[in-house]
Amino acid sequence: MKRIAVFCGSSIGASAVYKEGAIQLGQELVKRKITLVYGGASVGIMGHWLILY
């Protein structure tokens, strides 16, 4: 697999577990050199992807 599309919310969510899950997934994608395709906003969970990539 070379790319994966992920739908993320524009808010952090009711629990910090959502943020942590997004960070863990992002780290795993980087480790495996998989490109992330996402909506591109800079807020909420979507914004955390910007930190990782």
Summarize the structure.
The chain is mainly alpha-helical. The chain has one domain (3-52). The chain has helices at residues 16-31, 44-52; strands spanning 3-5, 35-37.
Question: How are the SSEs ordered, and which strands pair?
Answer:
Elements: E1 3-5, H1 16-31, E2 35-37, H2 44-52
Parallel strand pairs: 1-2
Look at the helices and sheets and give the structural class.
mainly alpha
Strand content: 5-15%
Q: Tally of extended strands? A: 2
Rough outline: globular
Order of helices and strands: EHEH
Largest sheet: 2 strands, parallel
Low-confidence stretches: none
Number of helices: 2
Strand order within the widest beta sheet: 1-2
Total individual domains = 1
How many angstroms does the end-to-end distance come to?
18 Å
The gyration radius over C-alpha positions equals 10 Å
Residues in helices, as a percent range: 40-55%
Average pLDDT metric: 77
Comma- or semicolon-separated keywords:
2 strands; single chain; mainly alpha; 53 residues
Explain this structure to me?
The protein is mostly helical. The chain is built from two helices and two strands. It has one domain (3-52). The protein has helices spanning 16-31, 44-52, and strands at 3-5, 35-37. The chain has a two-stranded parallel ribbon with strand order 1-2. Helix 1 (16-31) packs parallel to helix 2 (44-52). The two termini are 18 Å apart. The mean pLDDT is 77.
